[in-house]
Design goal:
single chain, mainly alpha
């Protein structure tokens, strides 16, 4: 029995691969298999990359020989503007600041004025401008007298405004305010009408009708029914349920 064909062991191949030649048909050992690409050579597909309208029309078109245009700056790359050279570098020359030596203040003598080495518009307009002369003030002269002056309690305010002023007696002022009805409510005293009239509330203790001793204002009467509620009228605290005592008795074994 003959061996099976090797082409049967290969994976399937698409139609386009047969047309290009990327197939396994050349390894056929039995001779019965034929490549489908032989039948597709003369067939043209509209969407095929092998035979298209573009290939048919433009493949045989002769090319146009054009002369090579060489720019004058092509051989000299340094003259190109994009080669790290800008318009600002061509038009504006770099301004270099000359370095000057550090200004030194020279003294001709101990009493001469310090020289100013700087130059400015202000100095050109006002030539007298410059450093001021340093004046040695020296030590402060002290007084010949003693500095230890005692502080006197007598001041001009006390001499001018406190001669005829007498301090009022505080006890007499309190008595005056207590007896005067207009100033009775301004200050606080231990004995007041509120303290005398109102006491701590207790059960069955209602405030009586009193009069304000200072201003004569009559206080409002509080009725007895104002302190009675529905809970108090319906539930009497005196009528309590009977409580029976319960004693445990243990049987003797």
């Amino acid at each position: 029995m003959s061996e099976p064909c090797k082409l049967l062991q290969c994976p399937p191949v698409g139609e386009m691969n047969h047309g290009i030649g990327l197939c396994y048909c050349h390894i056929c050992t039995c001779g019965n298999h034929k490549c489908p690409g032989d039948y597709l050579k003369n067939q043209k597909y509209l969407h095929s990359a092998l035979a298209s309208i573009y290939k048919k029309d433009f493949t045989k078109k002769p090319g146009v020989n054009t002369e090579l245009i060489v720019r004058p700056c092509a051989l000299n790359p340094g003259c190109n503007k994009m080669d790290l050279k800008t318009i600002s570098q061509q038009d504006y020359v770099t301004f270099k600041i000359d370095k000057t030596k550090s200004a030194k203040y020279l003294k001709e003598s101990t009493t001469s004025v310090l020289k100013f080495a700087g130059v400015s518009n202000y100095q050109s307009e006002f030539p007298n401008w410059g450093h001021y002369e340093f004046i040695n003030i020296g030590g402060i002269k002290r007084q010949a007298g003693s500095n230890n002056v005692k502080l006197s309690p007598i001041t001009t305010y006390k001499q001018n405004f406190c001669k005829d002023y007498e301090i009022p007696n505080t006890q007499s002022q309190k008595k005056l305010k207590k007896t005067n009805p207009l100033t009775a409510c301004t200050d606080f005293f231990a004995q007041t009408t509120s303290r005398d009239s109102f006491k701590n509330f207790k059960k069955g203790n209602f405030p009586e009708r009193v009069r304000n001793k200072a201003l004569g204002i009559t206080a409002l009467e509080s009725t007895r029914g104002a302190y009675e509620t529905m809970y108090r009228t319906e539930y009497n605290t005196k009528e309590q349920p009977t409580i029976f005592s319960y004693k445990k008795t243990f049987e003797k074994l």
